[in-house]
Amino acid sequence: MSNTQSQPSIRAAITGTGFYVPDYVLTNKELETMVDTTEEWITSRTGILERRILKEPGQGITFMAERAVKQLLEKKNLSPLDIDLVIFSTITGDMIFPASANIVCDKVGMKNAWGFDLAAACSGFLYGLSTGSQFIQTGKYKKVIVIGGDKMSSIIDYTDRATCIIFGDGCAAVLLEPSEDENGLIDFELHSDGSGRQYLHQKAGGSALPPSHETIDARQHYVYQEGQAVYKFAVTNMAEVSVSVMERNHLVADDIDWLVPHQANKRIIDSTRDRMGLDPAKVMMNIEHYGNTTNGTIPLLLAEYEPRLKKGDNLILSAFGGGFTWGAIYLKWAYNS
Predict the structure, then answer these.
(1) Backbone phi, then psi, for 202, in 5-degree steps?
(2) Which of 38, 103, 258, 268 is the most exposed place for a label (fewest CB within 10 A)?
């Protein structure tokens, strides 16, 4: 769907970021000792050199989210009690229930906030950011935190060379507040196509195929991906939705300061950039260090590139995820670091 309504009197703006990545670095060289692959093969086909893995025993995604949110609050000099709503975009919640958003609220002390998890695979952060902006635009809330992150190592089969080379762990958060000027989230376009589930999914663990000895023995609790099919859909749709948002807002390549693309595969990113007609210097990239952190990729980019962003910069955020889901957001950056 597209956000084609008339512009709201209140616009939601990102006003701060925070992030956390684990200390442990899993390199391509180490993966050579685990599966039948080579460092050169991984790098040439994905652009990934290394990824971070959360090794702390018994800790899940909220371990990382707590630290990202606390960093954000500290940078903004805010009390946890100031936050109205928390939206957590993740597919690797600590538990099936309760929502990890609620767990993070408890860990951080955001006692005045309510929250929920949002699952849209790699496009989840865009879904969450678009949803959170609506609560700001209506005037209902003043401070909304949107978290994006995943502990992908918890659902990766490290004997499957098709998937284990791609994914890593990481988490980041942004604060949404009412804009004081014309900057903020301008437009979004989101899509989904459930027929794509056959190509990228986790077979077991849900209500259709609950955990059992049989599902565990069959290794059905890990990410399953048919790489070529996913690549084909991602290359086409991620590029097309980005161009669609540009055209609807009468933007040309020279108007765009930054492309903020999901970090799944460097070739997909390059294809999207080419379709948009952008200079490579305008593309945010950290895939070489973190791999695909699923919901974490776009907010991690925003947090890392924050010092380089200027008030009024035009950003296009773009993603494609399993299910299938995809979308793009156009926003004007609201502050100088």
Answers:
(1) -115, 115
(2) 38
88: closest CA among 146, 41, 36, 37?
146
DSSP 37: -
Question: In total, how many domains does the chain have?
Answer: 2
Q: pLDDT band for 9, please (50, 70, 90 cuts).
A: confident
Helix (H, G, I), strand (E, B) or coil at 328: strand
Return the residue matching tokens 């039948």.
Answer: 36
- Region 2-15: mean pLDDT is 73
User: Which is nearest to 284 in space by CA: 266, 268, 299, 305?
Assistant: 305
User: Contact, 283 vs 274, CB < 8 A?
Assistant: no
Q: Which tokens go with 324?
A: 């299938």
Encoding tokens for residue 287?
Answer: 């895939």
For residue 169, give the nearest of 18, 322, 300 by alpha carbon. Answer: 300
The predicted pLDDT at position 241 comes to 98
- Helix residue ranges, H only, the chain: 28-32, 39-46, 61-76, 100-108, 124-137, 213-217, 227-248, 266-276, 287-290, 297-305
**What's the predicted TM-score (pTM) here?**
0.96
Compute the average pLDDT of residues 25-49: 96
Q: Tell me the C-alpha distance between 115 and 103, whole Å.
A: 9
Looking at the structure, tell me whether residues 113 and 258 fall in a common domain.
no
Q: Which residues are catalytic?
A: 122, 262, 292
Mapping DSSP to helix (H, G, I), strand (E, B) and coil, where does residue 182 land? coil
Look at residue 12 in the predicted model and tell me its pLDDT.
98
Q: Tell me which residue range forms the domain holding 151.
A: 12-181
Q: What is the CATH number of the domain that holds 233?
A: 3.40.47.10
Other CB atoms closer than 10 Å to residue 270's CB: what's the count? 16
Instruction: Answer yes or no: is 193 within a domain.
Output: yes
Residue 273 contacts residue 283 (beta carbons within 8 Å): yes
**Residue 14 structure tokens:** 């990102």
